[in-house]
Amino acid sequence: MTQHATARRRIVGAAAVTLTLAGLLAGCSSRPGAAAVVDGRTIRTSDVVSVVDDLKPALGDVSATQVLNILIEEPMLVQLAADHGQGVSDADARSTLDAFFTSAKLTPPASYSPATLEVGLHQAANAKLAADTTDATLAQDYTTRLGKLAVTVNPRFGTWDQGQLGAAAAPSWVVAQK
């Protein structure tokens, strides 16, 4: 066998490995860069990272999994709140986010990214719904709507099971040192 043929096989082999790894890392392969796809709506990995970076000064140890879980639920929870007479606005979201910073004795930023505002909407809706102790159908309605979400999660962030985002498992090829 010639050196040229050996080199060509190495290049083809390296390209195959690279393409395989890229496919595995993409997770939501039909939507590159997706952390999750919920009812056709893409939640970008960059949005998850942006929210973690935005809120870390105020909240400390906020994880990408926590943020993604909130971003998955946000539209459903905000609609649930509106349907139960507890609607929230962007002003409510900003107020909620500002409170995170002021309670940590920090000055809130002048503005928030759209994804961070979604977290604020989720938290504001959640607070209003939690305060409503008179609506007996609320918990069942929440569970039903959550169960109807069509969610595909990038394995890097975990797995979606029964309306909850579970922690990501280490790939089988990663071995912990003893």
Structure write-up:
- By secondary structure, this protein is mainly alpha-helical.
- The chain has one domain (30-158).
- The chain is 57% helix and 10% strand.
- The strands form 2 sheets. A 3-stranded antiparallel beta sheet has the order 2-1-3. The chain has a two-stranded antiparallel ribbon with strand order 4-5.
- A hairpin with a 2-residue loop joins strand 4 and strand 5.
- Helix 2 packs across helix 5 (114-131).
- The chain is globular and about 50 Å long.
- The relative contact order is 0.15.
- Mean pLDDT is 83; it is low at 10-30.
Chain-wise SSE layout:
Blueprint: H1 3-26, E1 34-38, E2 41-44, H2 45-59, H3 64-83, H4 90-103, H5 114-131, H6 138-148, E3 151-153, E4 159-161, E5 164-166
Antiparallel strand pairs: 1-2, 1-3, 4-5
Helix pairs in contact: 2-3, 2-4, 2-5, 3-5, 3-6, 4-5
